[in-house]
Amino acid sequence: MNELLKKQKRYFHTGETLSLDFRLKQLTRLKEAIQKYEQTITDTLKKELHKSSFEAYTTEIGIVYEEIRFITKRLSDWMKPQRVPTPLTHFGSKSYIYPEPYGVTLIISPWNYPFQLAMSPLIGAIAAGNCAVVKPSEYTPEMSTLLKTIISEVFPEEYVAVVEGGVDVSQQLLDLRFDHIFFTGSVSVGKIVMAAAAKHLTPVTLELGGKSPAIVDASAHIDLAAKRIVWGKFLNAGQTCIAPDYVFVHASVKSLLIERMKQYIEQLYGHKDTYSRIVTVRHAERLVRFLTNGIVVHGGTYDIEQRWIEPTLLDDVTWDDNIMQEEIFGPILPILTFGTVDEAIQMINDYEKPLALYLFSEDRDVQQQVLQQARFGGGCINDTVVHVANPHLPFGGVGQSGIGTYHGKASFDAFTHYKSVLKQTTKFDIPLRYPNFPNALKWVRKLLK
Ligand SMILES: NC(=O)C1=CN([C@@H]2O[C@H](COP(=O)(O)OP(=O)(O)OC[C@H]3O[C@@H](n4cnc5c(N)ncnc54)[C@H](OP(=O)(O)O)[C@@H]3O)[C@@H](O)[C@H]2O)C=CC1
Ligand SMILES: CCCCCC(=O)O
């Protein structure tokens, strides 16, 4: 790995990766390779996570195509040096900002969207002119190997390379000095990554997780709230970092919401053969232990060996239950109630800042109050999850749910250093700046106030 890093550093310093034409060509070649392997990608997602073709395209492959399209169209503008105003105190000079790639970047990706969460950051790294080493998760080994096959077919390893392996490989990579680390995964591992980066003062982007609430107030459109919460929660069997982790519903509408959510679970996820599986038996065993929390009001059955857990609703859950102490990351939805919006915001703000927050309310005052008073990475009003697929919206967490953002221009920014340069004239020199100028202090006080 050390040799690979040296090769990439040498290649980066040739300047090959810097031109617009080079970057656009690499993104086009990547897209063509993905098109060539599209069916294999779909089959691999089905084999390892039992993802339907529909979910494979809408939450993995299609999102990657859209990122490439969106960025390719705008990259020329983003790369241009930007002329900015210069204050009178610097009369005669001109000021510019030059976007510059960090250099050689490390991308560590998780298993839940194993294709998209490796490719989306890589697209940003390429667009910004970097080299990249990608370390996919060992929990989806066939996707990891497929990513290596695709990447090595398109790019020389001195430019972009996939390094397969588990925790030991990640840790060996983290010991090396990269110019930027982009990590997607759990909060606990995010802390390990940041500690490793601190040794070299390497900038990081951390896309982590948390307990993202779905708040449903008394004014909400209950039927749509139920449908959209069920859709977002049980997508990929709940293994989605921005899935609604729990429902926080006004007591007056809880029963109606539960009744409608039951209907939509059957309608949208009632067919076992098209429903996703939990990534490993160990992850399934962790989730099944939550079924003793509260009261199962829908679902609750499972087959550990098949890694299948029925979409489940838990009522009468308390904040002290185990399921409320960690990110669920599975198809179990606890339901808690609140009396006033103030109380709901207070409870949520007492927790770590979530990656996402969803508010279902038709009351504009409530919408404004939650947006202003609740702290969270990003989210939706009257929907769930879909904000992630808008390339105009930077995606990321805050506090324990993450550092930095990406998607669209934010992906270019995540892998770019903005270098500020002032170009000074030599046609004249302003004596006022020098300490020997008579009454210098009096003059500068007139200019700087
Ligand atoms: N913000 C976001 O966009 C997303 C966040 N997540 C979060 O990720 C978590 C689930 O994904 P999961 O893959 O289990 O997350 P992990 O943090 O367990 O793993 C993420 C990556 O880090 C590697 N890794 C694991 N342990 C270590 C370690 N001790 N040192 C260095 N690297 C390590 C993993 O390798 P390996 O898997 O090979 O062990 C994997 O490549 C959830 O908390 C979820 O919220 C998930 C998806 C998106
Ligand atoms: C729908 C796609 C979501 C990808 C990031 C996550 O796990 O939340």
Task: Give a quick rundown of the structure.
The chain has helices at residues 2-12, 20-36, 38-49, 53-79, 116-127, 141-154, 167-175, 187-200, 222-234, 254-269, 281-288, 341-350, 364-373, 409-414, 440-447; strands at residues 82-84, 94-101, 104-108, 131-135, 160-162, 180-184, 204-207, 213-216, 246-250, 295-298, 302-303, 308-309, 312-315, 332-338, 356-360, 378-381, 402-403, 416-423. The chain is α/β, with parallel strands linked by helices and 449 residues long. Keywords: Coiled coil, NAD, Oxidoreductase.
Task: Describe this protein's structure.
The protein is α/β, with parallel strands linked by helices. It has 2 domains: 2-208 and 398-421, 3-Layer(aba) Sandwich (Aldehyde Dehydrogenase, Chain A, domain 1), CATH 3.40.605; 213-389, Aldehyde Dehydrogenase, Chain A, domain 2 (3-Layer(aba) Sandwich), CATH 3.40.309.10. 42% of the residues lie in helices and 18% in strands. The chain contains 15 helices and 18 strands. The protein has helices spanning 2-12, 20-36, 38-49, 53-79, 116-127, 141-154, 167-175, 187-200, 222-234, 254-269, 281-288, 341-350, 364-373, 409-414, 440-447; strands spanning 82-84, 94-101, 104-108, 131-135, 160-162, 180-184, 204-207, 213-216, 246-250, 295-298, 302-303, 308-309, 312-315, 332-338, 356-360, 378-381, 402-403, 416-423. The strands form 4 sheets. The protein has a 7-stranded mixed beta sheet with strand order 10-13-14-9-8-15-16. The protein has a 6-stranded mixed beta sheet with strand order 5-4-3-6-7-17, sandwiched between helices. It has a 3-stranded antiparallel beta sheet with strand order 1-2-18. The radius of gyration is 25 Å and the shape is globular. The relative contact order is 0.14. The model has no long low-confidence stretch (mean pLDDT 97). It binds NADPH dihydro-nicotinamide-adenine-dinucleotide phosphate (NDP) and hexanoic acid. NADPH dihydro-nicotinamide-adenine-dinucleotide phosphate binds at residues 108-112, 117, 135, 137-139, 166-167, 170-171, 184-186, 189, 192, 207-209, 241, 327, 329, 355, 402.
